[in-house]
Amino acid sequence: FGPLLFSLWISLHEWHLVDPAHPFTGLANYRALLADGSWWSAIRNTAVFTLHVPLAMAVALALAILTRGSRRAVRWARLALFLPSITSVVAIAVVWKWLLNDGHGLVNRALEGMGLGSVAWLTSPDIALATLMAISVWMVVGYQMVVFQAGLASIPRDFYDAARVDGAGPLQRFRHITLPGLRHTLFFVLVTSVIGSFQVFGLVYVMTEGGPLGATDVAVYHIYREAWEFLRFGNAAAMSWILFAVVFAATWLHFRLLERRGARA
C-alpha cells in the first residue's frame, strides 16, 4: 500500500518534478479538476470508448457458440480469433496505424480501388475514437470468446435436450438456457472489460496521441501527459484518484445490480 498512499499524499500537494518545494495544497488539485474542461472531456471520451464493450461481448458470445466443437477447422478458427488477445498492444497499434494511414494505408488503397474514396480513419475528429473502438473489439473478442466457451461447457447438455423435446426453438433455448447459464460469466466479462476500457492507453498513445483535436484524449493518456509532459505530478495523482473512484463506483454498481437480480431469482 506504500505507493498507493504516496500517490494520495502527492495529490494533496503542488508537486512539480523540477521544483524541490512541494507545498501542501489540500484539496486544491481536486477542486481545480472540477473546472478543468479538458479533463472532463477525457473522462467523456473514456466513457464513450467503454460503449464498445457490449458490442464486443455480443460478437464474442456469437463466436463462442459458432466455434464450439473439436473439428480441425474450428480449432484453427478459435486460434486465429484468440491471437490478437495475446499479441502486444503496441505491435497491434503500429500495424493498424500503417493499415489505416490516410495516404498509403492498405485499407484506403482498397477503398479507392473500389471507387469509394479514402477515409480519414485516425485524423478525423468524428470517427477517430470509433476507429479505436472497432480495433479494441477485434482485440478482445478472442479472449472473451474463450471465457464464454468455458461457461457454455458448464451448462448441462440435458437442459438443451429436454428443451428440444418440449419443442423449444434455438432462440428460446438461447434465452431461457444459455443466457441464464452464463449469468456469472457475462458479469465477469462485463466488469473486467469495463475496467480495462477505462484504462485504455496503448492504442491512443501509439495511434493518435489523443488527437485529432482531443477526440481520442482518454483519461489514462491525459494523466500520462499531465505527469510526464507537463511534470505536474500533483494534478496527475489527483486525476488518478478520481479515475479510481469512477471505476470503483461503476464496479460497485454492477455488483449491486447482480445481487438484486440474484435475490429476485
Structure, briefly:
This protein has 265 residues and is mainly alpha-helical. The protein is built from 14 helices and no strands. It has one domain (48-264): MetI-like fold (Orthogonal Bundle).
Description of the molecule:
The protein has 265 residues and is mainly alpha-helical. It has one domain (48-264): MetI-like (MetI-like fold). It contains 14 helices and no strands. It has helices spanning 2-11, 28-34, 37-50, 52-66, 72-82, 89-99, 106-113, 128-153, 157-165, 170-181, 183-198, 202-207, 219-228, 233-264. Helix 13 packs antiparallel against helix 14. The mean pLDDT is 93.
Q: Percent range for helical residues? A: over 70%
Q: Report the count of strand segments.
A: 0
The total of helices stands at 14
Report mean pLDDT, rounded to a whole number: 93
Contiguous runs where pLDDT drops below 50 for at least 5 residues: none
**Distance separating the two termini:** 38 Å
Strand content: under 5%
What's the assembly state of these chains?
single chain
Along the chain, the helix and strand elements come as HHHHHHHHHHHHHH
Number of domains: 1
CATH architectural label: Orthogonal Bundle
In the CATH scheme, the class would be Mainly Alpha
In the CATH hierarchy, the third-tier topology is known as: MetI-like fold
Specify the overall morphology.
globular
